[in-house]
Amino acid sequence: LRRTAHRSVTEDCPQSVSEIGRLDVYPAGSPQAECLLSGQAIVASVAYGDLERWLRWDPVRLRRVEEYGIHSTMSVPLQARGTTLGAAVFTRFRRPDPFTHDDVLLAEEVSARAAVCIDNAR
Predict the structure, then answer these.
(1) DSSP string covering the chain, please?
(2) pTM given for the model
(3) What is the CATH number of the domain that holds 108?
């Protein structure tokens, strides 16, 4: 996947774990790969051990995740008109709470709207 955008609630932190324009490979079992394969949002958390498990394959990414204090991620497929365009990845680093079901519903709605806009712009 190629990183095309990044936005944080803070201006200076956390910086992106991956630079914009960089081509990233996500192994089978990673939240990003799983969301693209299943077509469903995937939530991963340090508390449940599933975030660190897939990060072990990339020591640089693991170091950045630890440095920025990221403890939960949510990967949501960007789908429009029957086509998967990519994935939106949301991270949580300030609040200690994991993502909730309501967070997933909101992310799915925002991602669905974004996917239609991206598809229309192609």
Answers:
(1) -B------SSSSSSPPSS-TT-B----TTSHHHHHHHHSS-EEEETTTTHHHHHHTT-HHHHHHHHHHT--EEEEEEEEETTEEEEEEEEEE-SS-SPPPHHHHHHHHHHHHHHHHHHHHH-
(2) 0.82
(3) 3.30.450.40
